[in-house]
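We close this part of the discussion by returning to an individual protein. The encoding preserves chain order, so positions in sequence and tokens coincide. The sequence in question and its structure tokens are set out directly beneath this paragraph:

===
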Amino acid sequence: MKEKDNKLNNSELDQNELSDVLENENSVEAENTSVNQEPVLSELDRSKAEAADWKDKYVRLYAEFENFRQRSAKERLALIGTATEGLMTELLTVVDDFERSQKAMETVSDTESLKEGVSLVYQKLVKLLQQKGLKPMESVGQSFDPDFHEAITQFPAPTPEQKGKVIDEVEKGYTLNSKTIRFAKVVIGA
């Protein structure tokens, strides 16, 4: 029985030792866990701070882009409004000449001088428009081209060479800096 009591005492001691060892291991693990959590928490905090920084940069950049877009739209509208100002200023001299010729029509009995004056005003207007890049198209005798001509009707061609070509021009076409702004209305030979 003594042996049994010794074994029991030994096993009780072993269990006590075992529980002490387990407690020590648990406390060491708890310490290690708290030590390991610190770097994880600080890394998490760094990531959150970096994400907040990127979000702030994104919001600021987006706001700056919206301001730029709105400013560009306002500038574009202002440019469109004043784009024709120079042309209109130069056209005012031609309008003045037409007003003077209208006044002259009321009192002048010599129609030749009146025709000459109107012709001069017309030439001044054409010259001004050509300086700005406006050019009339030459259509009569040319082959029909839908990029420049608008066919109104077809007539039988007087000669076989005029088939598919422009016989008559009802309304002139114009280009502005090599871009067609008005198609010539033409009659085509069939």
Observations:
- The first strand starts at residue 134 and ends at 136.
